[in-house]
Design a protein that fits this description.
The complex is a heterodimer of chains A (about 600) and B (about 210). Chain A has about 600 residues and is of the alpha/beta class. Chain A contains 16 helices and 29 strands. In chain B, strand 1, helix 1 and strand 2 form a beta-alpha-beta unit. Classes of the chains: A alpha/beta (about 600), B alpha/beta (about 210). The structure holds flavin-adenine dinucleotide and iron/sulfur cluster (3 copies).
Chain lengths: ~600, ~210
């Protein structure tokens, strides 16, 4: 921690928050609000004279209210920066008549009641999001009595109590009588793995954190009765099983089953009712203290930052990486990376590993000092543009601006454009041309495919990242499928324009398949949502016109799904066989004039 | 619904297409189920194709050398390589054409291995017919290719790290130690996050910070 404070290349802004992010990879423009501390950070020597005279006593948040502090305080003894600060809402005021005691005792004259919040603007090339976690608040889980019984603690409160630097100097004491508990119970999965309250996911560290706590207890108090109520113990990491075994060896009891209720006894002890699923019996356990192994939730600011930077979230509310396997620290927004629990619950080792990975990914992008942008981007043909704004609405990267009011044609920020082609496919006025995947280039391929014996062909549009790769995988696996399937590669299924389908059908194609990444896996955030909508729309139009909509298919095929690809080709061939020459002739006739 | 009729006019390079087509055997990988010579002969007849050849290994040193020499000798302005998946060798062939002065976006591939010979192994007639169509499609696309250039923009060699827990701290230190300026923004009055509150931590059971 102190290395950060000292490092000449690190500018540390505490009590600060990012309020705005503009721009794109290579050049993000950031706005930060640095809140006033009312103490000059660089001058303060943390002597602590001020706090000694401050008359205001408040619960100390760092110790989760288990200790107290003054209105002027240092966050905690090893804090970086170590400077004191004033909570101005608690302060009695700088009117000498009212208080100002701290000002009088500070030799260095660092206290200044007129300090105000500072707005800082800066430009950076890359951003690492490491906003961490919020420990689950068990208030809503009333059956465990967290708010009703004083001797029910969260794991973080317990951490402070057994911490040598904590409010009780590491002595475990019961909040009600300050005596040593003779028995302590831990309840696992509090706020995790539940469809009712908290998250559905496993919080990943609480099993091991509890095991650690049992070892700490057994080390200090070998005779203490220690019990753990759990669903199953997840000790999957390096060295973890060993700690679990040691805990059992030391006599810690692991009871399979989560308590149904907790009651307080006359001496402020806790009576826990649990169905022991290992023995199928209902048991009651009397304990002096109970610790709730609270799970992890996304940091409160997650959604705000997500909106600011156009990031993606998982259904659990943590940040979603660009690819869960191959790009685990990249955001889909180029130039943004994730580290630590912001991306999902994890322990310290994994957080550190991910942080180093994120740093290297950022360096990899920056080290040349310049950024090359892929030329596969959208270009607006201004004279065709009606300023309708559809393109701006569909672009997953907010790369297009259209000034609808003053009828300015659309303009594409080519550095932000990722090249999915959705805008070009959705524009009704042919006002967007997609570099390297122009209408002409793609229609040229379709027409060449259907030039001879079109009735025998299966037309397949496949996205580069998933379905085209899935077809390759079918090849690598030597899966055999009908030889009349022909692929047209596009970067994203979002590029498949309505007119490509009509053109194919008009030229005699019996069947057409549009394929892309599964929903949620799209390489271009969510461009395939538009694919899905578009295909549904075209199929409706086909039905209306009297063309069997079955002849247009949509399938999500991942890069690993060679079998799915091959099976789909068999299915397409089956459908193709149901399409007669007459039916094709009729379709060509129907489409002649559009 | 608007449709463009596809006219076969020259690409953006200002001159008429002069296309070279190479049908790769990939040893026997392609050649065992596709008649490569026949595919090459068929392609020779297409509009804009100046020369069309079958070739044992397009990606090999002698293969690349031959293609580069042909580009220079015949003033080819587009190349079609019918071989393996572009997901494998597109960068190789892009570099190859670039080394003799052709824009890398003027090269097009037809996937005759992963998407033809390997998936229609006992069907030489149909596999060959499909290969011919795939090459025709690639030629049609090649006619309309336009040279493109990557944009180079200046970049700010600085990083913003949001959050000063152990993850933010580690990322900031790694970056700073590599010579990059870092701004570390922390919402609380001190950095440290959850870890600053822990004494002993698993799996080492030693103190945290
Ligand atoms: C009770 C408990 C015990 C644990 N015990 C262990 C253990 O023994 N061993 C182990 O390996 N792991 C343990 N863990 C897990 C460990 O705490 C985490 O892996 C680690 O803290 C993750 O670090 P982080 O930097 O991602 O997040 P955090 O520690 O949460 O840090 C995030 C930081 O970002 C700041 N922040 C949040 N939002 C913003 C914003 N918008 N702007 C600016 N700053 C922001 C926060 O104030 C915080 O300082 C435990 C966790 C808990 C809850
Ligand atoms: S780590 Fe253990 S206690 Fe935490 S949610 Fe997962 S299973 Fe439950
Ligand atoms: S969708 Fe087309 S017409 Fe509408 S604003 Fe965009 S480019 Fe212009
Ligand atoms: S191609 Fe995709 S990313 Fe680029 S501007 Fe169009 S919709 Fe946006």
């Amino acid at each position: 921690m102190t290395d950060v404070g000292r490092h000449p290349r690190i500018k540390l802004l505490t009590l600060s928050e990012v309020v705005d992010v503009k721009g794109y990879v290579g050049n993000f423009d950031i706005k930060i609000i640095k809140r006033a501390k009312f103490v000059d950070e660089s001058a303060c020597t943390s002597c602590g004279e001020c706090a000694m005279v401050c008359p205001v006593v408040r619960p100390d948040e760092f110790n989760i209210g288990l200790a107290s502090r003054r209105a002027i305080y240092s966050p905690f003894p090893q804090a970086v920066p170590s400077s004191y600060l004033i909570n101005i809402k608690e302060c009695l005021g700088h009117n000498p008549a009212v208080c100002s005691k701290c000002v009088d005792v500070c030799d260095k004259k660092c206290i200044n009641f007129h300090m105000s919040d500072e707005e800082i603007a800066l430009r950076v090339g890359t951003i690492i999001v490491a906003t961490g976690l919020k420990p689950y608040d068990p208030t809503e889980l009333d059956e465990y009595g967290y708010t009703r019984f004083e001797n029910v603690l969260t794991s973080l409160e317990f951490e402070r109590l057994v911490n040598a630097g904590g409010p009780s100097r590491g002595e475990l004491v019961r909040p009600t009588d300050m005596g040593h508990p003779k028995s302590v119970g831990f309840i696992q999965c509090v706020g995790s793995r539940s469809s009712r309250k908290g998250g559905r996911y496993c919080s990943n560290t609480c099993c091991m954190n509890t095991i650690k706590s049992t070892l700490v207890l057994k080390e200090h108090y070998p005779d203490m009765d220690v019990k753990v109520f759990y669903i199953d113990i997840r000790a999957f990491g390096k060295g973890f099983e060993e700690l679990y075994a040691r805990s059992r060896r030391l006599g810690v009891q692991f009871i399979r089953g989560l308590p149904g209720s907790v009651e307080e006894t006359a001496d402020k002890g806790l009576r826990v009712a649990v169905e022991n699923s290992a023995h199928a019996t209902l048991e009651f356990h009397e304990l002096d203290m109970l610790v709730l192994a609270q799970g992890m939730q996304p940091a409160p600011s997650t959604q705000r930052l997500q909106e600011m930077m156009g990031l993606q979230l998982t259904p659990d509310g943590f940040y979603l990486e660009a690819h869960p396997k191959l790009q685990p620290v990249d955001a889909a927004t180029r130039g943004v990376f994730y580290a630590g629990c912001a991306e999902g619950p994890k322990d310290i080792k994994e957080s550190v590993t991910q942080a180093s990975a994120a740093a290297v990914r950022a360096i990899r992008l920056m080290h040349k000092g310049e950024i090359t942008t892929e030329p596969i981007t959208a270009e607006v043909i201004a004279e065709n543009c009606t300023s309708c704004g559809i393109c701006a609405q569909v672009c997953p990267y907010n790369a297009i601006t259209v000034e609808k009011k003053n009828k300015q044609p659309a303009s594409v920020n080519s550095a932000a454009c990722a090249g999915c082609g959705t805008c070009a496919a959705e524009c009704l006025f042919d006002a967007i041309s997609m570099n390297h995947y122009t209408d002409q280039q793609i229609l040229g391929q379709v027409d060449a495919m259907l030039e001879t014996a079109p009735e025998s062909k299966i037309v397949v549009f496949a996205c580069n990242w998933c379905s085209y790769a899935g077809a390759d995988y079918a090849g690598v696996s030597r899966l055999q499928y009908p030889a009349n399937a022909h692929l047209v590669r596009v970067m994203c299924s979002g590029r498949v324009d309505e007119k490509f389908i009509w053109d194919g059908l008009r030229r005699g194609a019996p069947v057409v398949l549009v394929s892309g990444c599964h929903i949620g896996d799209c390489h271009y955030i969510n461009a395939n949502h538009w694919t899905e909508k578009r295909v549904t729309r075209i199929r409706k139009k086909m039905s209306k016109m009297g063309i069997r909509s079955e002849r247009l298919q949509l399938e999500w095929i991942s890069a690993a799904e060679g079998i799915r690809f091959a099976n789909k080709m068999e299915e397409m061939e089956k459908i193709r066989r149901t399409v007669s020459r007459e039916e094709i002739e009729e379709t060509i006739e129907l489409l002649r004039n559009i | 619904m608007t449709t463009q009729s596809v006219t076969q006019k020259s690409g953006g390079s200002g001159s008429d297409p002069r296309i070279g087509v190479y049908v790769c055997h990939c040893g026997l990988n392609i050649a065992q189920s596709v008649n490569c010579r026949q595919v090459a002969e068929n392609a020779a007849a297409a509009d804009g194709v100046i020369l069309s050849k079958d070739i044992p290994y397009a990606c090999s040193e002698p293969g690349q050398h031959q293609i580069k020499q042909d580009i220079l000798d015949n003033r080819l302005n587009r190349v079609v390589i019918a071989s393996c998946s572009p997901r494998l060798h597109e960068p190789t062939f892009k570099q190859m054409v670039q080394s003799v002065g052709l824009n890398p976006y003027m090269m097009e591939m037809a996937n005759l291995r992963e998407q033809c010979s390997w998936v229609h192994m006992n069907d030489v007639d149909n596999a060959t017919r499909k290969a011919e169509t795939l090459v025709d499609m690639a030629i049609a696309r090649a006619r309309h290719l336009e040279p493109l250039t990557e944009d180079i923009l200046p970049l700010t060699k600085k990083t913003l790290v949001i959050g000063g827990g152990i993850a933010g701290i580690q990322a900031a230190l790694d970056l700073a130690d590599c010579g990059y300026d870092v701004t570390l923004v922390e919402k609380q009055p001190s950095i440290g996050g959850i870890m600053a509150r822990l004494d002993k931590t698993f799996p080492t059971m030693d103190c945290s910070i």
